[in-house]
Amino acid sequence: MPPRYGRESQEFARVLNLSDALFAIAMTLLVFSTMDASGVRLDATMGAFSGQGAELIAFVVSFAVVANFWWVHHRFFAVLGFIEPGLIAINLALLGAVALVPYPTSLLGRDPTLRGTVVPFLLLLSLIALLHLSLLLRAGAVGAWWRRMPEGLLRWVVAGWGSSTAVTLLALGVSFAVPAVGLAMLLLTWPAEALVRWRAPDAYADWG
């Protein structure tokens, strides 16, 4: 049997602390990767924002998406009873992908309507969404929950996470043809998951 580290163990806490720290650093670096103060007009009241509309869009979109990914990650760890090597490996891959977010965000800030900026951004978000889904499936396979999950609920949780992942992948496909539309489709990830939540059993709120 591979080693298992319970939620009260130091190993569990270290994995969780590393995850939260990396999310926080990635979210902080977003502003440095998008906003450029060298061209700011100091003689204008709103000079700090003039000519930086694209950069602001890139920052707001990326921050909202990464914050949502952190919330999903937080909810996932809240229902874990232990971690094991498989979960740790997938989580490290996820953190590596999150650490990359500031780079495509900086490209997006140059022009959020071009294929060369939108496609890399959505490609990375799709990878992060798939890794989140992989964490869920791995936890279900090894029964890593802190208490017994109600019968049949796992497929609802997979459907909820999978719906937003599917929307992100669809947005990626659309972005090859119409980049701006693909980027705007990210707004549909929340309604897609909310629809599953609305139809799911009441216990979904404690696990999803």
From TrEMBL:
One of its GO terms (molecular function) is potassium channel activity. It comes from the Bacteria. It is a multi-pass membrane protein. One of its GO terms (cellular component) is membrane. InterPro entries: TMEM175-like. It is found in: Membrane. Keywords: Ion channel, Ion transport, Membrane, Potassium, Potassium channel, Potassium transport, Transmembrane, Transmembrane helix, Transport. The chain crosses the membrane at residues 12-32, 53-71, 77-101, 121-146, 166-190. It catalyses: K(+)(in) = K(+)(out). Belongs to the TMEM175 family. This is DUF1211 domain-containing protein.
